[in-house]
Amino acid sequence: MAGAAFAGIGVTPAWAQVAEGIAAGPEITVTARRQDETLSEVPASITVLTGEDLQAKGIVTTEQAIAATPGVTIVSNSAQVGDAQINIRGVNGARDAENNVALVVDGILKTNTAAVNQYQGALQQFEILKGPQGAYYGRGATAGVIVMTTKMPSDSFEASGRAYWATQDSQLAEGSISGPLGENTGFVLFGQYRHTNGFYENVGTDSRTQGKTMDTYEGWGLGGRLYSEPTDRLTLDAKFRYGKVEAGALNFTAIFALPDFASVLGIPEYAENVNDHEDFQYRRNVPSIDNQRTIEASFKADYAFDGAKLSAWAAFSDIDETFYADTTGASLGRFNAQASCQQSVADLYAQGVVLQAPLYLGPTPGASTLGAYSPTTCDGIQVTLRDQRDVSAEIRLVSDTASPLQWSIGAYYLHINRHYATALNEDDGGPVVVSLYNAPGTPNQTSQLFDDRFKTNVYAGFGSLQYELGDALTLSAALRYDREERTVTPLVPDVIDPITGASINPGYDVGTLAPQSRSYQQLQPKFTARYEFTPDFNVYLDYGVGFKAGGFNSQGSAALVDLYFNQALGSNIGIEDDYKKEVSHALEAGFKASLANGSVQVSGAVYRNIVEDMQFFEFYTGTFGILRVVSNIDKVRLMGAELGVVWKVAEGFTLDAGGNVLDSKIISNSVRPDTEGNKSPYSADYTLNLGATVVQPVSDSVDFTFRADYRLTGPTWFHVVQAQERRTIFDLFYPGLGTADYSGTKRDTYGIVNLRAGLKGEGWNLTGFVNNFFKTRYLEEVIPAPEFGGSFVTPGAQRQIGIEAGFSF
Asked: Which GO terms describe its biological process (predicted)?
């Protein structure tokens, strides 16, 4: 299991000499730089998980693969199932913006952020290449690239699969079959079903939510692949995938940061450090339900000329997602005057319902402190829709000779049609009407609506050169030009909110909502040098530019922030209805070494990255309702170092360690100028991975297997506002008491231990596992809302115990 050990730090023993008496594994081929290379040849920090590694670590999801990689973190599934924010060395993916990490599956570039966490098929290899890869992948690779390789058809019939049963009523069943269809054609069929009840129960008394959990998940996917070689020069590769998911949504608890409230009222929970909140009580009266449907298809053709290979592909993706859930309307009394709100408060008060401190339930809404996500109907119902359909195509010509000079040239096109909307509807206590707009007087009448259609066209051209100057020095250069043309069309009707009497979208209160257009373009060069001193030691230097296009917020966002925060509170927040492109300039120097006759491998790197206009997600709530926007941080400096060591102690026994240390700093931020000097949000100060793999025979045909993994994640701020104070909307109602202190919103360091042990024979394995062995409590995400007076917090996964069985023949 040497490959599994090296996956944690991005090196593998396959490229080094092997200690006497210890067998070498096969050399690993990677494709993260758009060409086939051995892992030792890649002049970059790269993590590779082979099929054996994925099995040994029990990896099922992208989150689990990322947890095996130092310097990379992910936040996913806290808001919705299609939500995944990956952070690589301080470059974070902003929720509601475009990808910051390119996702490539079998050579096809995926463009929808919702695809990152989806089942892609029978996975054979997982690669993470760190640093901007815009020269190779364009607009969505400012932080790095994830490359997934799935199973190819086999020459004879094969079948494989695995299933597990675990606590929290968790089950997994997945498998694939493959075989020939004639002399030069083969197929793969694959499928997966995964279910869990989750860890956090909704304990509210409403019949709509009793017995339900907040982090439930049930999903399935089916797909197929047809691969053909009609001639010795031509290959054809067609794929199709369909899947559905039903899961929880908005798994947040509001935690306040109002020290004056705590002091005057004698209720310490009004100023609670987010790390001290251990009792996550969910008492919602509206079920949190998220539905996602995916249809994807692609076709790829390769033709080998004499001295060059032509590759072309086209892909179609259609991912629709809609969720509804309890929301935050009760925190400032938006629906207090509604009969349904008043009646639900009176009924719950008569039942003797007690809310978790610092909240209080009185006989009327006005006599209560309800907070967000309460068991009453006073919160309203949030309905969010994100539907995206995209079509993309690429053509590439690559040299294919033994010459010292290698080259490539190509072009790319992408069209995106995205519909994004969020509605705040009244909760009248009846069945939920899942609709973006319900007219006044109808069930769940709409009080606020952001609704826009976004269309995008992307055009790109690219090329690369690589030259070997003798046996030791290799130089490479790549260049890509992306142009992105984006439009937004508001779909919100110009009608009055029946609850407040204002417009249903605040943009109408200051003018009209009109279509907007913007274009973004960027040259993305990349230069790399690699020098091999000996077969056991090489160094590299890498410089690259990353680019993520700008875009549009929901139209009316700027008007809302200006009216409710800048004018009312004097906040001076620079939110706009559009946000700028993000550009990064990264420099990395690293080495790879083999010591002690190959039994010890060491790799390391230092890096520095200047990010201009880093995109950042913010959540606002108040008497106006709710708002999600993307803003820009003008300039962020990121610098750090990585080091990894793998020691193959003996045949069947390997130890590995890898770590990353990050120093980040906001240099300038015109959106919130007083945050300059703070750290980059969502960026852990350090990560550490430790692991041990044991494979020992217990008979001639059976091996005992053991894998232990420890992941340490350092302190993390999630907002640009950090150890600072803010005047909040509560100060408008309680003058002198509404100043919030956000020094307690940094997530503490936490460590997770996962253990696996079992037996493995020819074509079968049986493994017991414990995830989060020590029941470590940690936070998945903290979303401070500075002008609200608190944070919205999602707890992390608890301990899970299960047994897994697998087969292959």
From this structure: iron ion transport
Q: What is the pLDDT of residues 234-248, one digit of tens each?
A: 999 999 999 999 999
Determine the Cα–Cα distance for residues 208 and 444; give it in Å rounded to an integer.
15
Contacts of 434 (CB under 8 A, 6+ apart): 322, 324, 383
Sign of the four-CA dihedral 500, 504, 509, 510: positive
How many of the other CB atoms lie within 10 Å of CB of 471? 7
Is 130:587 a contact under the CB 8 Å cutoff?
A: no
CATH of the domain at 514: 2.40.170.20
User: What is the residue range of 438's domain?
Assistant: 2-289+296-808
Strands (E), 51-143: 72-76, 84-88, 91-92, 101-105, 108-110, 123-130
**From CA 540, how far away is CA 428, in angstroms rounded?**
63
Return the closest-CA partner of residue 190 out of 122, 249, 144, 243.
122
H/E segment holding residue 139 = none
CA–centroid distance for 612 within its chain: 21
Please state the domain count of the chain. 1
Buried b (16+ CB within 10 A) or exposed e, 391-402: ebbbebbbbeee
For tokens 């004639």, name the residue.
182
Token digits of residue 427:
């909760």
Distance from C-alpha of 798 to C-alpha of 789, rounded to nearest angstrom: 28
Contact 688, 70 (CB under 8 A): yes
Helix (H, G, I), strand (E, B) or coil at 347: helix
Q: Alpha helices of 20-59 — where are they, by DSSP H? A: 51-57
Please give the Cα distance from 82 to 277 (Å, whole number). 27
Which tens digits make up the pLDDT trace of 87-123? 999 999 888 888 899 999 999 999 898 888 899 999 9
Single pTM value for the model: 0.92
